[in-house]
């Protein structure tokens, strides 16, 4: 098989995990040099050696303070320092003119690799190296023209120990309780081989189970964390008592654009669906938010004024105690075209309902924040990333769910759908809704909180119903975001509100504008 064809197959395997080709290419070059251009150990176990080497390199880069720098911030000429290789076996050199190389049973036994299974949820498992004893490609006896094969002496082998910077075996620092590799890797008459116990890198290639437009991978490079247990859902779903009435009869003709065709953004005069955003569409032709609209949404959230709030006569959040409503922010809505409109699904005013198109990855953060989400591609300002999906609960159901939960259970922070509560004086319980992604949700449940200067902003979007007791909560970028950067959004937490259904955690966002700076930061996992 040609070298180019083999390289293409390797890249196809790593693209399934959304690994950048540029970074993989660097690791692949190192491995080919290490294995003396022998592709077999690289292709074994569905390119497990290549994938392991990539994540080991990323991890060591992170520990040195340049977590995301591999290629895009300058190529590194060395592989991780923890990756080590020691020359450990004699090899018979092929004599020029001889037919082939013959290994003794004893030598074959020394080349045996032991594998263990890394258990991964959702029905996927990865077979990872438990112990790898790799041969130094330069550790060979020189061949003599016309003579029989020569065997390296133990004394020569001792000199051929490759440094930690040069070698690659995908192994951890040796545990003090481990005595090294198996006997098959040792030879009494030469330097003992030191192998180290390998932790299992946990990988799920697609947590969405094929429900999204793109695959979203999950990677735990530490190999020590319990994988999250939840049901992935692409769309919100009613838990039990929530009232969400979706029907075409409730959509008045003046609230849709039945006379449109094709793409509504292509016509000079905006259609009826743009009335909500003052007669202009919220989106540009490229699918991003218009600068003016995004700026207005950010200003309202970051610098709210008194006239941005409305107050319930009987607040659903305060019914259990004799307190006045603390106020609900009147949010700017986006209204997208829907079923009753005449345009097609590629209309520029149907962004959120088409679903996720960005390449995302769930990963275990190093700052003590638990799981997080990063983008695997550059995202321009105003790009739609995903919506927050979960079970649609009433506030009473949320309170009861939290009351029954044990202290050890971890909950994602619920989202209250209160952007239009002020339009009615009194709301029934089944109309005061929230989203809870603890047990069922999408990738947004892993996005961490950051005070004030987060890279995402949440904006309410009306799609299938004019009844704003229920709406979609979409997340858009507030600035240009680089590939491999973690995505964050401001949950809007009041860290002094001790009466919230779920107590505010101690913030570890790291922002200089953190609203919880007076409290010591602790590790949290949302």
UniProtKB/TrEMBL annotation:
<feature type="domain" description="Pre-SET">
    <location>
        <begin position="260"/>
        <end position="355"/>
    </location>
</feature>
<dbReference type="GO" id="GO:0042054">
    <property type="term" value="F:histone methyltransferase activity"/>
</dbReference>
<keyword id="KW-0539">Nucleus</keyword>
<feature type="region of interest" description="Disordered">
    <location>
        <begin position="137"/>
        <end position="159"/>
    </location>
</feature>
<feature type="region of interest" description="Disordered">
    <location>
        <begin position="72"/>
        <end position="113"/>
    </location>
</feature>
<dbReference type="InterPro" id="IPR007728">
    <property type="entry name" value="Pre-SET_dom"/>
</dbReference>
<keyword id="KW-0808">Transferase</keyword>
<feature type="compositionally biased region" description="Low complexity">
    <location>
        <begin position="76"/>
        <end position="86"/>
    </location>
</feature>
<feature type="domain" description="SET">
    <location>
        <begin position="358"/>
        <end position="492"/>
    </location>
</feature>
<keyword id="KW-0479">Metal-binding</keyword>
<feature type="compositionally biased region" description="Polar residues">
    <location>
        <begin position="143"/>
        <end position="154"/>
    </location>
</feature>
<dbReference type="Pfam" id="PF00856">
    <property type="entry name" value="SET"/>
</dbReference>
<keyword id="KW-0158">Chromosome</keyword>
<dbReference type="InterPro" id="IPR001214">
    <property type="entry name" value="SET_dom"/>
</dbReference>
<dbReference type="GO" id="GO:0008270">
    <property type="term" value="F:zinc ion binding"/>
</dbReference>
<feature type="compositionally biased region" description="Polar residues">
    <location>
        <begin position="90"/>
        <end position="106"/>
    </location>
</feature>
<dbReference type="GO" id="GO:0005634">
    <property type="term" value="C:nucleus"/>
</dbReference>
<protein>
    <submittedName>
        <fullName>SET DOMAIN PROTEIN 31</fullName>
    </submittedName>
</protein>
<keyword id="KW-0862">Zinc</keyword>
<dbReference type="InterPro" id="IPR043017">
    <property type="entry name" value="WIYLD_dom_sf"/>
</dbReference>
<dbReference type="GO" id="GO:0005694">
    <property type="term" value="C:chromosome"/>
</dbReference>
<dbReference type="InterPro" id="IPR046341">
    <property type="entry name" value="SET_dom_sf"/>
</dbReference>
<dbReference type="InterPro" id="IPR018848">
    <property type="entry name" value="WIYLD_domain"/>
</dbReference>
<dbReference type="Pfam" id="PF10440">
    <property type="entry name" value="WIYLD"/>
</dbReference>
<dbReference type="InterPro" id="IPR025776">
    <property type="entry name" value="SUVR4/1/2"/>
</dbReference>
